[in-house]
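TOPIC: backbone geometry
CONTENTS: sequence, structure tokens:
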Amino acid sequence: MFLAANNGAAFGGLIAVVALALTVVAIVAQWKMFEKAGEPGWGCIIPIYNFYLMCKIGGKPGWWVLLMLVPIVQIVVLVLVLLGVAKGFGKGTGFAVGMIVLPFVFFCLLGFGDATYDRSLAV
């Protein structure tokens, strides 16, 4: 019985380490993406401010942050902002869907990849 409890604790610890590593990678990738877009990279770690910056990068007005407080509407707003971010980096709708489904992967592609930001493309 004691051995099973230790295995569970070890597995839980492993999950925590993997989650922490993924979180750090996501923060660094978003930091790089923000800098590519001409915004302060540190803004990605401030909870509401990061979405405000995301709105700016996606070509949406900053007051859309308030729409994130409305249930159901927040889903539509998030999709539109991420679509604008993807277009700002010269990517298409499929890439925006990837940002919604697998954000760790697609934010890394924007942050560490060769994508460049053009504010005139973000709509």
